[in-house]
Design goal:
Elements (H helix, E strand, L loop, with lengths): L8 H64 L5 H21 L8 H28 L1 H10 L2 H40 L3 H43 L3 E5 L5 E3 L11 H14 L7 E7 L4 E9 L5 E7 L1 H23 L3 E5 L5 E4 L1 H6 L38 E9 L5 E12 L5 E9 L1 H36 L10 H30 L7 E4 H19 L2 E5 L8 E4 L1 H18 L5 E9 L2 E7 L22 H7 L5 H11 L3 E6 L5 E8 L27 E5 L3 H13 L3 E5 L2 H10 L4 E4 L8 H9 L9 E6 L12 E12 L4 H11 L8 E5 L3 H11 L5 E5 L2 H10 L4 E5 L1 E2 L2 E2 L4 H5 L7 E5 L5 H11 L4 E2 H13 L15
Parallel strand pairs: 12-14, 18-19, 18-20, 20-21, 22-28, 23-24, 23-25, 25-28
Antiparallel strand pairs: 1-2, 1-5, 3-4, 4-5, 6-7, 6-10, 8-9, 9-10, 11-13, 14-15, 15-17, 16-17, 21-22, 22-29, 26-27
Length: 957
Amino acid sequence: MPARPAISWHSLAFLGAFVVLVALGWQGKRTQDAVLRTNQSVSQSLEIITAAQAILSSLQDIETGSRGFVLTGEPSYLDPYEIGLEQIEAHRRSLEPLVAQRDFPDQRWFEQLDRNIAERLVIADANIQARRELGLQAAAERLQRAGGKQIMDRLRVLLNAVEQRERQRLAAANRAVADTLDRSRQLAVIGALLVAALFLAAIWAIRRNLRIRQALAVKAQAGEARLGALLQAIPDDLYALDRKRRVTALSATNGTRAPAPATIEPLLVNLLDQADHSLELRQTTWCEIDGQRTFEVRLAPTGLGDHLAIARDITELQRARDILEDQKVFLRRVVDTDENQIFVRDDQGRFLLCNSAFAELLGCQPEAIEGRRSEEIAQAHLVLPLLQGEADLLGGSGELRITEVSVTDTQGHERWLQVVKRPLTLSNGSCHVVTVAVDISLRRRIEQMKTEFISTVSHELRTPLTAIRGALGMLVGGVAGDIDAGARPLLDIAHKNSERLVRLINDILDIEKLEAGRLPFHFTRCDVQALIEQALADLKPYGDEYGVSLTLLLPDGPVPTEVNLDPDRFAQVLANLLSNAIKHSPTGGVVSIDLRRDGDTLEVGVQDQGQGIPENFRGRIFERFAQADSSDARKRGGTGLGLAITRSLVQQMHGRIGFDSQEGQGTRFWLRLPLELAPAQPAVTTTSPPLPGRRSAGPQARILVLEPDGQAAEQLASALQEHGYATVTADTAVKARELLAEFSVQALTLSPALSDEDSIAFLQNLRSQSAYRHLPVLIVSLQPQRRDNDDGVLRGGAVGVIDWLHKPIDPSRVMDVVRACLTSNGGRPRILHVEDDEDLRVLLARLVEPLEVDLQGAGTLAEARRLIEQQPFDLAIIDLMLPDGDGSELFDQLAQALPPPPVIIFSAMDSPVHDSRLALRQLVKSRHDGAELAMLIQQLLNHWPPGQSRDSEEVNA
């Protein structure tokens, strides 16, 4: 039999070995494949972890940069912030493709990540802006409130979730490799190959780890370099407090000697002990005794068990705070020392500052007012008048001045204040209103005393002067018979000095009224040349007494002479200048007036031939009671007030006055007035047709109704038209003058309360013009038509006023007025004279004795009322100031007579405008309805004294 081939055990062994090697190779291949797959997974997981850590690192750079800038305010600290902003988007983009094949993180995770990153970037940017615009304190407060930590926590949670998931993947892969290796070691009989494979794998892993560590070391070195640069750039001094409470200096020297760690260590340890929570920020102010410096010290935990301390030198800041506090105390002392009321309010109405004088009005201290609105302050309603008008000033421009405002303090005392408000705009654009209120209560009382004194002077001096002047005038005029030659010079001296005393009193009252602004002016366009010619004619007798002639020098060419002025006041100016020139010119001298145009002004010059004005007196020539030589002044007469009054009058007429003088060659006073170049309206000459009730076939009579209440004026005009009168109405004195120039008017009704002028002054100005001297004027007081409960029915009263004469009264003027009032109806006219001064009653009786009239005198209101009840009168002459009341109280009783007599009013008062209006309202107290009032006016006009002829040329009122 053939032999079986023998099986070689080594072959079998080789085969077995080969099989084992093949199996080991296959197992090794499987192990290698598993290791490779695990390596790829590990690499990808590590890349994902690295990307997540890079995103977190960029966010930490952003947070570190923003917090460093907030703490220091140094722009260099924003470098990590800006680098982080540039890198975070790149890291975000690199992460998404790495996890594209993973079920986590998903798209929702990325949306949450993007939203939180965006919120963290917005907060960081807002913190930086707050630090730039609002300062450290406000930025730190915002940093605490902004919620950045919560967002960072959410970001860490999101990124840590990815990192933990990947680390779980790494752990699972590592376990799988270990299992494979274990199985390989169990199956391997040739462990060298397996060990070699494992050794090679280990070497590969070690090398890879080394590379990762090297990269991390490079990053750590870069971070350390950035931290070193940060510490060098910070101007503050940085210290580290470790867990063992040892202090080390972190920052390098910054040009000033920083406190040594040993010096500041007790403070930092004390701050650490005072904290209730280990993670909270501690802050205090510390004064270095040796260096006399002040530091603001902050201690903050790092979260690693140690603390970081920042010491900032605030010595200059503290010094500025101390100076500011000193200034506040200084301002408080200054405003509290001022007796005026001072306060400052902001645009919200809060009192930012007030002084003690203002707080006294409310009965409290300034501290109880400052920082509050008016509605939060007790008794604030007392000062509400001082708080008006601030809204218009909050724009930052302009000012508000209130001449007088009345307030009442907590004691019930009334105070009058003069208020000035001005805006105060601060550097931040906010606007406050500063108010200063000056207490003028004492000044008002003094002015009231002054007014009462002037009124007393007016009455108590003018009344006896009227008697003295009238008696002397009658004696000099021969009323009492011939006067021997020895007595006449004495009477002439007495009469002359009584006239001088009258002028002195009038000058004193005029200068006081000018200063108080109570002297009325009635401007109209006038021909200055005509007024000068009239003044020369009026002053010619005065010049003849001194042997001085007057002349007018006109320019060669035409010169416009139309000027808007008050003709009466201009005549007073010319009289003062001409009388001075006459008195200072020698006998046989010439005083000349010249006219010339100087640009847009008309210059009027008065030239004398005197000795000129001394050099040392020229600066005082326009002062009150100023006289170059008092002895010479007494010889020539004069009060020293003429030029002071003249200057004030010229200034009130918008002109200027001055003089040119050379000693020994005379003086030329000049005044310049603005020219009125508009064409003047042609003068209207009017004739007065007879009033209804008189025998005449003339045209219908026209009545001018001067009444500021338009509705009442229309009702009165309708009532008068029903009685046959034509009417025109005016609501102001200016309009009335225009109508007087335009229409032929036969009567005028005058309201006692004009809106633009004193009614008394209007009446006196009207009577001073020849065209209207005998015009019937009825003072008509109408009930106002603007009350809520008004029934619309016209009611009022009327009285006819012949004239209103101020004391001292010129007897010749009185005689002219009385003669004009007497009618020739066959009987003796009855005149009622109401005057408390017996001498004046006797004087008037002697004056009217040649007129064959019955004159009845009364010294009191009661006596006058008895006389009116007993008999009717044709004329009443009444003094307003009587011992038992006002003379105007008689007019209601006189108006009830048939026919009602007209009146002549005597007054020694120089009252302000509002007092004059009150007096006029008292003239008419009766309240007739519309028909009765129209009938009363008709009766007054039908029985109006005829007066003298009216053929003189009419002058515009």
